[in-house]
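Replying to the earlier thread about multi-chain prediction with a worked example.

Input:
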Amino acid sequence: MLGVNSNDAPGAEHVMNFDFSEDLNMLREQARRFLTERCPPAAARKALEGGPALDTALWQEIAGLGWLGAAVSEEYGGIGLGHEGLCVLAEEIGRAIAPVPFSSSVYLATEALVLFGTEEQKQARLPALCSGARIGTFALAEGPGNPSPRGVAARVTGGRLSGSKWPVLDGEVADFAVVVAQDGDAGLALFAVDLAGSGVSRAPLRTVDPSRSQSRITFDGAPAERIGTDAFAWADVERLIDRAAVLLAFEQVGGATQCLEMATAYAKERTAFGRPIGSFQAIKHKLADVYIATELARSNAYYGAWALSTDAPELPVAAAAARVAGNDAYHLASKENIQTHGGMGFTWQLDCHLYYRRSKMLSLTLGSQPYWRERLVSGFEARVEAQDKAAA
Amino acid sequence: MDFSDTPEEAAFRADVQKFLNANATLRKPGDPAQRVRYLEGPEPLRAAKAWQAKKADAGYAGITWDARWGGRGGTPIQQVIYNQEERRYNVPRGFFEIGLGMCIPTMMTYATQEQCERYVRPALRGEEIWCQLFSEPSAGSDVAGLRTRAERDGDDWVINGQKIWTSGAHYCDYGIVLTRTDPNVPKHAGLTMFFIDMKSPGIEVRRIKQISGSSNFNEVFFTDVRVPDAQRLGAVGAGWRVSITTLMNERLEVGEAPGPDSEDFLRFARKIDVDGEPAIRNPAVREKLASWLIQTEGLKYTRFRTMTALSRGQAPGPEASIAKVVGANKLQDIASVGMDLLGMSGAVMDPDLVPLQGWFQEALLYAPGSRIAGGTDEILRNIIAERVLGLPADVRVDKHQPFNELTRS
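Result:
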């Protein structure tokens, strides 16, 4: 069907349908309209300024639109739109810097159950996730460090989890967590743990982006239900985070695009030295570079969307490329948005900092830039090795 | 979203593959592609002409051109498919792109029916080669500031002046030349376009030796060169508008600079040792490689998005500008770091002594040209800023002043 591993020219490229369908582009328009109205930057600002950790009404409306179950089949309460549809929504959520636990609950908790849960677990848990009645999150980190099996000390013994997980994104608003832990002495597994249950204590963390809560969660003999019965390994954790990484990359592309639009609009209206600042090449070239980085990130994310929605073996490399490009683009776009706005961009009053905060927060979620760069390069090493072997 | 051809596209691709398999050899993975814009000497030119004729006779030279000019009357997407397939083979490149991509489309828009009948088909078959004479020593990025004069004399025009950076002028048969016919009006308004026989008396071509030592470009001097008015393209004073037709095609033709790319560097870094282990194990090398990979991948999938837009009947966007800015800078960076991996011997470019026959060293020397030719990095950023982002044009002090009253360097 395709020869997409053909960067070095030999090997055909067959690509004529590398964009979202008309239906999904309509979904994008609807999502943008909804979020512009119901979730302007003021929503993120409210959370930042000490408002409630979750706007429950907004979350319920999002659930009502079917977004929480966009990629979940109808038998489990979803709308069966598939992962391309979820990518479109992720971009819009990112553009709106929506202060909702969408990524934690949808890309991670829901996906973990879909990928690894037993039939019974899916039936028991997915409908509540899709309806927004329950919020899930994902607990991997145990303090500083990037994703690694060596970093997992939390352990379940006799159905009880003990250990400490931090930071846990959206930890303050989640009802349960999908926790990566040692399954006794049998290696790693995923466990669903009720965060309101016994043996769980959680404390909010101060972070650079308070528009999404983060927690330190301590488990002391908390009841834990193993997700699935099949053998489980670190590669399965990677599969879960690679899939989520593509969706996070779309959030980054959405955020970067919004920053570029803000900076461009301001550069057209703000005058200095008797002319709009956007007519100076110092500003033009800066924003052209932001545009280039954003388009490269978008194209890498599209490849990720293809790999995610077709469950292609290229997913690890595609996800890493989408993440590395997304991190770079959003970082550049959010900092140069402040720069273009000058002193006003540095004020609390303007919204520029909301994106700057979100950009850094997203780039640390599920591993920082060095982690994803390493995943990208090692993925390409393996690809080149395989190509050379095949040619020899 | 998928990577499949439609049935019609798949059938076309199969035909193309059949043609290429019968007439050319496949490149092996990791083989350096053709390194320079074209190869010097009479033999490569002869081979290129033979290949072009074969391609034209099989209907693959002017895929989107009208059948009456020897074209196929096909779609842009068929052109893309052909290009994708041809890239996988060792075939001569670099002689006809400017003529067929820029000059002849301009002829087809502005020349008479008879002139098109005379010139289009021989160009398509590679029998006659065309060049584009726009840039001048004092008119590079600001090409509308050109000074080469054309003055009316009876049925002729007489051209005096100098052009520069004319690719392939030394082997070209015809060219399109942008001249100043009225210096008393603002610069864009006083230009007129002609096509000329490069063998006309009064034309002198001098090759330019570039940093890289090769000479793809030329200076072209005009001394009382007579051109019939019948060879004027567009109205007198409308040369700027005519040149836009030509230049719109330029960046699509120039595209990404050829040379070592991310995966070539990766293969190289796996083989070469630094401090007793393969260079690829070095974290600094891996970090660099990661940045290039997202660019290479990003450009590739941006191209796929463009093809999709074409396939859906939409106009392509400014992707070609992105590809050129990113590609040329990446090339320069990869060449430099590739040489760094060789340590103290990095500067040696003797093909017998250094890996990949000195590919990185050669690339280092021609990469600066890639950032300039066909629109500098700076001009391309202006284009993105103004045409894509809609930022206001820069203040132009010379826009409304008559050309002959401008401050000049």
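The two ends of chain A are 23 Å apart (CA to CA).

Feel free to reuse this layout for your own posts.
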